Input
Amino acid sequence: MNMPTVTASNISFGPGRVFIGAAGTTPSVDVGAISEDGIKITFMSSKKHISQGNPKMKVLTFIDEQGADIEFTGIEWNVNLLQYGLGTGNTTSISASDTFAFGGDPIPDVVAMHIQHYGAQAGHTYNAYVWKAVSNGDIEINLSHEEHKFPYKYTAQRATTDWAGATLAQDEQLVKIIRQKT
Output
């Protein structure tokens, strides 16, 4: 029989939460409701192969580039998130209004991100920590009959310390994922 062994506590589905804040601090701003597409974390690892001989055969491989991207679509109006999502801009809030102003700043804001998912099957909590990231995309607001969507995309940047100032090992300077078992 061609049946795999299934560990139910390793199966997970459903939404997550995204917290964002200034780089170097523990993110505390909850981005709110996220579309049904959820949160996507993409890890990239580009390889350089060294070939030798005749015929050439690969004899050695190096990783020459690593990266991580984070994508999600918010469905709540929040002008502060527009600033985070574009990596630039200015927001103000007074009792009667919230304002987002945009244009002219060439240096993107660097943010910290915490992505959290609760695995209902086993009760585990999954935490992804992105120490530093910059926005990597446009935000197109489509005022339609459906809920308004705000697509956010970020690219992780190398960090040498975590949010508490502790030194990060050489192999954990982009993203760290921890499964907290119950």
About this structure: The CA atoms of residues 160 and 169 lie 8 Å apart. The helical segments are 79-86.
